[in-house]
Specification:
alpha/beta; 4-stranded mixed β-sheet; 4 helices
């Protein structure tokens, strides 16, 4: 965690205003553990968004709703497969519609 904090500081010194985003990548199948991970990382870095991987592997959408409710960090991207083409911008309306389809 100290290494991440150092990278963040060095970027800020080298590039004014950097880093512009700090996106935490999480496994969507970890459930409540994902919430604890976000809380831990937020103690060290200002997390601006989340990338939830393996969203295709969870019937109920993994930890998306719980994370948003508990820690109020927006989900910005989701992974719905194994390749780079399977990365999508997160659309909350589309997500809710898919949950109830």
């Amino acid at each position: 965690m100290r290494e991440l904090e150092k990278v963040y500081r060095v970027l800020g010194k080298k590039i004014p205003g950097a880093p512009h985003e700090c996106i935490l990548v999480l496994d969507a199948t970890t459930g409540q553990n994902a919430i604890q991970q976000v809380k831990m990382f937020r103690e060290i870095l200002p997390i601006s968004g989340l990338f939830l991987a393996k969203l295709d592997g969870t019937a109920k959408g993994g930890a998306v709703i719980a994370i948003r409710d508990e820690v109020d960090v927006p989900v910005k991207f989701i992974g719905v497969g194994e390749g780079p083409e399977d990365v999508e911008a997160f659309d909350p309306d589309e997500f809710v519609e898919a949950l109830f389809a």
